[in-house]
């Protein structure tokens, strides 16, 4: 499948609207080279995108910033083998899959002449979610921290941390962008960020009420939101947010207890927790766990020992 419509955002920035299986992609031209943001959902999409970038800017592409590790954003990266890939150090997939990669954990700055591209590593939609800021034009490429015109934003990734997502949107708002390129859907003007913050707030209060009233995901309803309702993302987001918010309040206490105990004592403590609680703890610590309960406990113990 081809990638979609090419949209000029500003003098130096553009986006290409992604249609399944592609997320949106974008480009920024700075002084001596261009920067790509995300890479589409497959190699042929990546190649088409690269061609558009090079034709439009007539500049080499030096960096490809991957806003997070979902297939619809990273699977076209092989089309940019000669460029440097900037990707989160918290990537839950095998790091060996990324060639010429620069793994980042915090903010990162790309500077070329008098131009800057700033990368903010926030987590949220996934453990390694990042957004890209181009201050010269006040443009933000938000990746899947924003799904324009869709409700809910997809929050069903096991590493999704809703509280970090709130922080990320607040950070975007503070930067007062003129335009925002989302991970999916058309671009939006900066003031629309408030719609996305209130969407997350509505979702969170609805989840908290559901926990209090012990509702099942099928019994949860929401009517007042911004965007078009997406039933599949709704049903995939709810279970994760329910387990996140039923556990997150316990995490500070658990962390405090863990610090003062031996590995054997911690093993007993962690084994008493449910798999959901363990996963939320791992999510909070930004570590990757998988497998059965025994394996998750083992992974957490190893991490705690290394700290
Ligand atoms: Zn995503």
What does this entry look like structurally?
With 307 residues, the protein is α/β, with parallel strands linked by helices. The chain has nine helices and 15 strands. The strands form three sheets. The protein has a seven-stranded mixed beta sheet, covered by helices on one side. A six-stranded mixed beta sheet has the order 8-9-10-11-13-14, with helices on one face. Strand 2 (13-16) and strand 3 (25-29) form a beta hairpin. The protein is globular and about 60 Å long. The site of zinc ion has 5 residues, from loops.
Under the CATH scheme, the architecture of the largest domain is 4-Layer Sandwich
Gap between N and C termini, in Å? 45 Å
Number of domains: 2
Q: What is the class of the largest domain in the CATH system? A: Alpha Beta
CA-based shape: globular
Averaged pLDDT, please? 94
| Number of H/I helices | 9
Strand coverage percent: 15-25%
Strand order of the largest sheet: 1-2-3-4-5-6-7
Percentage of residues in helical conformation = 25-40%
> What does the main sheet amount to?
7 strands, mixed
The run of helices and strands is EEEEHEHEEEEEEEHEEHEHHHHH
User: What would you report as the Rg, rounded to the nearest angstrom?
Assistant: 20 Å
List keywords for this structure.
single chain, 307 residues, alpha/beta, Metallo-beta-lactamase, Chain A, 2 domains, 7-stranded mixed beta sheet, 6-stranded mixed beta sheet, 9 helices, 15 strands, globular, binds zinc ion
Topology:
Layout: E1 6-8, E2 13-16, E3 25-29, E4 34-37, H1 43-57, E5 61-65, H2 71-74, E6 84-88, E7 101-104, E8 108-112, E9 115-121, E10 130-134, E11 139-147, E12 150-151, H3 162-174, E13 179-184, E14 188-189, H4 193-212, E15 228-229, H5 231-247, H6 251-259, H7 263-271, H8 275-284, H9 293-306
Parallel strand pairs: 4-5, 5-6, 6-7, 11-13, 12-15
Antiparallel strand pairs: 1-2, 2-3, 3-4, 8-9, 9-10, 10-11, 13-14
């Amino acid at each position: 499948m081809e990638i979609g419509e090419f949209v000029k955002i500003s003098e130096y920035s553009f986006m290409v609207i992604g249609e399944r299986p592609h997320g949106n992609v974008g480009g920024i031209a700075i002084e001596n080279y261009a920067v790509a943001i995300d890479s589409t959902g497959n190699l042929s999409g990546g190649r088409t995108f690269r061609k558009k970038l090079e034709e439009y800017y007539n500049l080499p592409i030096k960096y490809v910033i991957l806003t997070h590790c979902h297939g619809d954003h990273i699977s076209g990266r092989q089309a940019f083998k000669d460029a440097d890939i900037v990707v989160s150090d918290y990537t839950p997939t095998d790091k060996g899959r990324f060639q010429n990669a620069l793994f980042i954990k915090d903010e990162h700055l790309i500077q070329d002449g008098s131009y800057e591209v700033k990368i903010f590593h926030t987590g949220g939609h996934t453990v390694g979610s990042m957004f890209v800021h181009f201050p010269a034009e006040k443009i933000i490429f938000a990746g899947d921290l924003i799904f324009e015109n869709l409700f809910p934003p997809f929050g069903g990734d096991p590493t999704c941390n809703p509280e970090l997502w709130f922080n990320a949107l607040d950070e975007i708002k503070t930067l007062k962008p003129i335009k925002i390129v989302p991970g999916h859907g058309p671009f939006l003007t900066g003031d629309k960020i408030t719609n996305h913050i209130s969407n997350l707030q509505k979702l969170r209060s609805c989840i908290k009420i559901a926990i209090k009233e012990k509702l099942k995901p099928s019994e949860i309803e929401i009517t007042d939101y911004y965007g078009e309702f997406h039933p599949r993302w709704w049903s995939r987001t709810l279970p994760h947010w329910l387990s996140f918010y039923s556990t997150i309040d316990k995490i500070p206490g658990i962390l405090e207890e863990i610090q003062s105990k031996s590995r054997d004592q911690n093993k007993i403590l962690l084994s008493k927790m449910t798999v959901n609680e363990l996963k939320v703890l791992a999510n909070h610590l930004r570590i990757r766990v998988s497998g059965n309960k025994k394996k998750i406990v083992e992974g957490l113990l190893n991490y705690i020992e290394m700290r």
